[in-house]
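ok so for the tutorial part 2 we go from a plain amino acid sequence to predicted structure tokens. step 1 is just haveing the sequence, like this:
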Amino acid sequence: MRGLLARADLSRYAGQFVWLELNYDEAKNQAFFTKYNASATPSFFIIDPHDEKVVAAQTGAMSELEITQFLDRGASGVFAKRQTPADTALKRGDAVLALQPAEAAKAYQEALRLAPPEWPGRELAEASLAGALQDSRQWQRCAETAAAEAALMKRDEFFVRTVVAAMWCLASADPSAWSNAELERLEPLAQEALSLSVTVRDHRDSIYRTLMYVSVARNDTMAAGEWGNRWLVELDAIKPIDNEERSALDIARVENIQIYGDPNRVLAALVESERMMPENYIASLRLAQMESLAKHYENAIGACNRGLARKPGPNGRAWLLEIKAQALNKKGRTLEARKVLEQALEAAHEIPNKMSRDRSLKKIRMALENQPVAQ
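step 2 — the prediction. this is what the tokens look like for a chain of 375 residues:
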């Protein structure tokens, strides 16, 4: 997203917005994230400076067109003197989306109820409703509502967002009569979304991931492998224009293999990324994950050590040390593994974001409790 924002022509918004980018891992930003419950990355908010309330909110990647639509929506929420009842309900949903997604869903549904047939915000409200139902973990209602809406929508960015939300809800639910029925409706829509030029890379990755998840959940490893291979072929065909795009591609490769597949399939690309990004500890971390999954434990330990030498923050340090401890255990070096886990625990205590810190501490403490005793 940072690269797209740098390339996008947003000159017409000059003077309307003050732009602020906040790093999720820096301690000084935690008050903002807590106030607005910004737990997903990326998250976008447009905030009215008069009362500091959210007038537009959206999570996940956007195309350039979606960015301009988002900014127009925010500007309208702040500057428009007259709004329809549907507009007001839509704005109310955006204002509570991060903190109360179930309430946001009600507001979006109210906007659709109040809207006249030709209301220009209809597809936005439909896509936002699907996302709010996903965020509030209403899996069945989300999948059923989004599938019905998407089938009737123009094949544009809002269609894609609606399908992505529906697929995540389907992937989050256990196989059942209703989820199998919705899969019959949603898989063709997901394939349609993959065929569209407006579908941005993050959304393509989400669609492939969810198609793999639902296949694995139904013990259809052949389908999971086919979706995974199609995804990897697509990723390998992309020549990254910068390190941010290279990292995004590597994230997708690792996510692919973690669902189903052969880690050896992506090792060459990850080795090349580590070479091309000598200051980036995440490149070493991803390589370590896949080396370990491929049972190349010495290689995994080496990649962790290189990542640690790149001076990551506490979150990255704790994560690298966890992976290293796992590889050491696989090598039978249990005493070393315990010491590394203790170092990971120390690092985790320094993670500034409370949610990330608590999650990391819980995971490492559990690993220490289950750590084999050295003979």
